[in-house]
Structures are given as C-alpha cells and as structure tokens.
Write a structure and sequence with these properties.
Blueprint: H1 2-30, H2 34-63, H3 85-100, H4 126-129, H5 200-210, E1 221-228, E2 235-241, E3 244-249, E4 256-260, E5 267-272, E6 279-285, E7 288-293, E8 298-303, E9 312-315, E10 326-329, E11 334-338, E12 343-347, E13 354-359, E14 371-377, E15 380-385, E16 388-394, E17 401-406, H6 413-416, E18 424-429, E19 436-440, E20 445-451
Antiparallel strand pairs: 1-20, 2-3, 3-4, 4-5, 6-7, 7-8, 8-9, 10-11, 11-12, 12-13, 14-15, 15-16, 16-17, 18-19, 19-20
Length: 453
Amino acid sequence: MDVDVEMVDSRREAQKDDIVAAENFRDTEIVDNPIVRRQNICFLIAMFSCVVGFSVYVVGRIYEFSPNDSMFSGMGTHSGEVDNNDKIKKVSIANDKFDKSHGKGWSKNHPEPQASPDPDSNSNNPESSNETANSSNEIPDPSNEIPVPSNEIPDPSNNNPDSNNDTPDSNNDNPDYNNDNPESNNDTPDANNSNSEPSADYLKVQQWLDAKVTLADGIMYEIIDQLHHDKNAFTEGLCFVDGRLFESTGLVGESYLKELDPETGDVIKEWPLHKEDFGEGLAFVDGSFFQLTYRQHKGYKYNINKLSARPEEFEFESTTGEGWGLTYDPVANELIESDGSNFLHFWDPVTMKQKRKVQVHRMDGQKAKNINELEMWRGRVLANVWFQDIILVINPKTGVVEKEYDFSKLWDKSVRSHAGADVLNGISVSDDDDILYVTGKYWDRMFKIRLLP
C-alpha cells in the first residue's frame, strides 16, 4: 500500500514538472519569438485593411462614386457635389415628359402631348418647327437646367371632359393628376423652355385652384347669358361634345337623350328611353355616350353618329345600387359616378367595373350626402347636391370638397316655385374654357355662368 502511494505521488510530481516546463517555454520561446510577433502584426494589418476596404466600399455605394473616381480626388477644391450623371439623366427624362404635358404629368394610358409649333419657324410641320422639342426616347443633356415641374401651372384651354378631343386617342393634351388641372397645346408655354413665363390662362386657373370659396361668401359667380330650357325636362345631366350640347332627362316614361341648341337651349332632337326606364347621368367617352338609369342597375351606350340605332346595354354596381350623376376623367380614363351616397365611384369605361371609390367630405368635415349631377372641369369634379342649390368642387383623388358655391340666388326658390321648377341640377362645360352651362329640374331657363374668382 505504501509503495502504491509513493508511485502516485511521484507521477504527480513528474506532471507538475512537465507543466512548469511548458509554461516556461511558452513565456520564453513563443512570446519572445520574433517570428510569432511578425505573424501577429501581419494578421492585425490584414484585418485593419479589410475593415478600411469595406468602409470605403460602403461609402462609395452610399454616394455612388464611379469606378474611376478617387475617394479623395480634388481634396481641398471639391465643391461637395457628387458626379451623378446617371441620376441626372433619369430625372431629366422624367421632367421632360412632365413638361411636355405642360405641368400635367404623363400616363402610359395617354399619348404625350405634341409640341406646340414655333411661331418663328417657316415650317408648317409642328414637329419640325419646334427644334427644342425632344422625343420621349431622347435623353436630355444633364448639363442643361432641369425644370422644376412643381411650379408649372396648368392651362385651362382644354377642360371639356365630354368632348371627342378629350379621349386618349385625341390629338389634344390630356391632363394628369400630378397637378390635377387640364391643359392645352395652344396656350401653354414651351415645355422644353424652362425660362418660359406662365401664360395668363395658367395663372387664372391656378388662382382659381388656390382660392377658397364657401357658402358664406354668397354669390361667387357671374351670369354671362340666359337661354331657353324645356320646362317639362326633369334634367339629370348635361354634356357638351364638340360644339354640341346634350341632355339626359329622367322619370319613368319621360326619360330622353336630347340634343339642344347650344346658343338658344331649344331642343333639336330627342331619343326616348324604354317606358320603364328612369334616365339619369350622362357622359361622353371616345365617340360614345354613356347614360345611366336610376334603379334598373343598367345603362345605355350610344354611338354619337348613330343615335337613332338601338344602344348597347351595360350593367353597373355602386354603393347604393343606384345611378345618379356621371362624368368622364380623360386623365385616368375613368368614368366617375355618383349614386346619392357620399361616395364617388371610378369605373373602367371598357368593362364598366369599379376600379376604386372615394368618400366625399364637405368643407365642414361632414360626409357629403345626395351627390347628384357631375362634371369634370379644371381637374376637379363639379357636383350638384339633391335638394340644395349648390355646386361642390371635389378633388377626385382625395374626395375633399375644396370649394362650395351658393346658387340659391340664381333663380330664387321663392320665385321659381310658382313656375313649378325644382332644384338646381345640370352642369356642363362649353366651347369657352371659363364658361359653364347650368340649369335645373323643370326649369324654363338655362344659364351660362363663370365661377369666381
């Protein structure tokens, strides 16, 4: 037993001696070994180089240095600007398209507006006469000044939403919601000349858009003319198309599509609906009229050149299931419908399916009710309200009512009631960009008015 204990103790002593020798070797042979120190230093340098290289890469990605640019080139004289030619070109292309639409943006659904002819050119070709016009495929020189489209003011010279010239196949310009206003080729400044001054029409429309009009302001319109109107017409919608004025009337057995004389208001011709139909809103899209019915969940599509022919029927859906007012937005290529609720519905004019809808709120924040006849003008939806002699100005993107016009004095209710006349209903653009047609149900008169300011 004593012999075994002594052997174990001796082994432990031997192990301790080995550990002490290893520690001494590590402290003297390894730590003080110059080869090991050089390896450690090289390793640290390599790690530091990797960190620096990665940092340079990240900074280069953030500021988009070109491969040939030195991070420190021009130090001491650098202006702080980064060479972003590629970005400048892309922005220039986008702004060029925006400017060609005269402040109205550009949509793939609509052709870009044609450049206005250069009055100083001897050529009759608008494209060849405007030497500054760039095609949509050309990349502007990034050294040129990039125009700022947010300051562009739209031109109201083409604000007829129900004319042939407002369809996507038209040669006229089509507005876009980037600025929410219509424009025209004729009166807008050259989109490629960033130094062009806004036209008087631009400024006039912008002034109107910026103005705040409330019912408390009283009469904020000017009467231009008074025309005749069929006092037996239960007016549901007016529509002006290429110099011709049309009307949709309602009530079962008394519903018609009518053509009126735009100078006198007299009926030129009329086409009756089925006896069981109750006619409603009317709009024009690309050669065809669209006329709603009240609760039949259907409408009629007429070829403007064959109004006597049997119209096509289409079905539609809305919040209440009813059809009230109708107009056309040539920018988004959408029919806009009201159904008596506080919603506006936006339809595809080909499929007649709803694409979206927005809730409308009055200027006091309350939900709008009984939205009736509609008309698109200056990028806004003008709307009558059932039971009220007012016109709302609605932003079609947000549903916010931006202006409210009081028409209670146009033909005072206390006076017209003796003639059996009902509420104000019926709005249309005219051949004058600033003048609108307005009338009412069973009114014996129709007015041409100008909204102020």
